[in-house]
Amino acid sequence: MHDVGRSAFSNFEGSTGKNELTSHLLERDKLMPLYMAKRQDDYTSTAPFNVFVGTWNVNGQLPTEPLDAWVSSEATPPDVYAIGFQELDLSKEAFVFTESSREEEWMRAVKQALHPGASYKLVKHIRLVGMMLLVFAQDRHLQDITAVASHHVGTGLLGKMGNKGGVGIRIMLHNSSLCFINSHLAAHLEEIQRRNQDYEDICSRMKFPDPEGQSISVFSNDVLIWLGDLNYRIDKLPLETVKERIEKGQYEKLKEHDQLTNQRREGNVYPDFEEGDLTFRPTYKYNPGTDEWDTSEKCRCPAWCDRILWKESAKAKLLKYQAHLSLKISDHKPVSAVFKINVKVINRELYRKVYEEEIRRLDRMENEWLPTMVLNQHSLEFGTVKFQQAVQRTVEILNTGQTPCHFEFIGKLGEKAFCKPWLTVGKPKGYVLPGDKLVIEFEVYVNKNTAPSLNKEEDKIEDILILHLVGGKDFFITVNGKYSPSCFGTSIEALCWMKKPIEQMDRKELTRLIKSRDWQVNNEKHHSSQMLNVPKELWRLLDHLYQYARHQPDLFQQPGLHEELKMIQENLDSQLPTVGTPLPGSNHSVAEALLIFLEALPEPVIPFEYYNMCLQLYNNYDQGQELIHKMPPHHVNVFNYIISFLQELPKYEENGLNLHLLATIFSGLLLRPSSVQRKQNTEGRMDRMKATSFIEMFLKKKL
């Protein structure tokens, strides 16, 4: 609607004279969409559009067979295509390095299979490691597609690695917003909670930019369609019973044991979404190249892993939902859904008429009234804030005047940002129409970047925000909270001085230890007997993983659960190590806690000053070892301790680890550039490869 508004505005400008096009009216160009949205029934009508949605987990295979039986399965050419893939690349390094050579090959295969009854162009595509989403539209619709945006969310290790997660594309088709999300959620029969967590993470973190530079959530759309390998399984039935019901076509009875169906019924995931009837065979798991169920050693139970759902909406009607069993290259079968979507189409003449009416009404309001608004509160109390545990609060704005309120958070004198880096404001600027309310969300979230200054008490959870009302007064909102110091975000030296858990430390003594890094380094030689060789928190993490997780399949390749990570952090911060007592949570959660601990170190295990020298010595072990021994003593201890631990893991085949994969995962944590070095870096991928080689060089040597 934004682009159409500009077109109508140009017509309005021509009919009334260019002299009236003032900067004041240009400001209205941002305000008018709000008024026009309230009156869209006066200038729009609906028209049906056919949208084809497809999903396929291709199991790392190349497109060696035509895709026509899937992509061109309908007699009528779709107006829009949204096609998602998962597992384009199954290499072990793929979830760390985002590059993949498979993208072009699969994109070309899809283009060749598009319906021959129409001409199509690619509107947008996005890929995150093995996930890719393509949106095509018929040529005749391209002029009516605007505001195209995309985003991706990784839910793998450290909440960002892209072996699992989602990719999304949002478009405006005429005056309707369509959003497509392609996701690959956590695998394995028992990981229901992790799949639900992946869904929640994608929903909360998937944001699309709007023309004003703000963000649009996945739920702020007229139509939302979610596709992908959601990985929910059939459980609590013997394998032979599942196969027997499939052969008899007893899909309704089988659906009673479908995890996604049951999780939706319980309200745990995909609330207010709809799905078509499952009238087709489960799409996983087949012997590749056949229609036979899995006969491998694992003998996976059949399941409807591959699904397409849509948010309840009167605008979208499902016409067909099916699997395409004739395609055999993968262990999954592709799935498609065809929708009839009633799109709001603008009548340009009516639009211009309504636009002019609203302009004249706005003129009268501005001449007669000043903007006024009230806030429901002026103070935000966030309570106790902990590392990587978000706390949200809201403020409600009410426009009590007769004219629109244009608000914006502005920085204090001499400050570029209007808020501290640990605070996020959901809508930093915008408009509120007369009589309307707007809820603004505020989130405090302390991460690896902001924890060190809070641990040192160089910063506090305190701020004053200035909410500026254009043409009116300023409002002041105070922010208060108390940060609970954590071993996460505390230096190696400071932790080695602490004999007690960080929560039991006297705050003044803690602050002195954390702040006095130079003093500590200079005195380590004189006081080494008073210090721990390595941080006790690191010892606890590695000891747990060695004692309980060295046989764990997919170790360091599966993310942990948020709630378990909180428990592990609180345990490390509040309790001393006890021999024989494991940390709380699953092995995967402890493994991710280790990675988060290393990532949050203010100075990495290999200090920043050694970064470039290490890259230069990536293939010279003797000089590399010499360099390592020049580091501060406790950094040397930690480096040797971690390398020794990692060298042990590949001895246990069940975990699926090898030295190269471990070097790939840990190199970015042990050997990472500072923010300044990162900005100067022009050899991104090459430097990452050198860092991996440097760490792998030590893993292959006996210390």
TrEMBL record:
The protein's Enzyme Commission number: 3.1.3.36
SUPFAM superfamilies attached to this UniProt entry: DNase I-like (SSF56219), GTPase activation domain, GAP (SSF48350)
One example GO MF annotation: phosphatidylinositol-4,5-bisphosphate 5-phosphatase activity
Rho-GAP domain span: 508-703
GO cellular component term, pick one: phagocytic vesicle membrane
Localization of this protein: Cytoplasmic vesicle, Phagosome membrane; Early endosome membrane
Top-level taxon of the source organism: Eukaryota
UniProt entry tagged with the keyword NAD: no
Gene Ontology terms describing biological process: phosphatidylinositol dephosphorylation; signal transduction
SMART domains (alphabetical): IPPc, RhoGAP
Enzyme class, UniProt record, top EC level: hydrolase
Keyword terms: Cytoplasmic vesicle, Endosome, Hydrolase, Lipid metabolism, Membrane
InterPro entries membership: Endo/exonu/phosph_ase_sf, Ig-like_fold, IP5, IPPc, OCRL-1_2_ASH, OCRL1/INPP5B_INPP5c, Rho_GTPase_activation_prot, RhoGAP_dom
Family the entry assigns: Belongs to the inositol 1,4,5-trisphosphate 5-phosphatase type II family.
Name of this protein: phosphoinositide 5-phosphatase
Native source organism of the sequence: Ciona intestinalis (Transparent sea squirt)
Source organism phylogeny: Eukaryota, Metazoa, Chordata, Tunicata, Ascidiacea
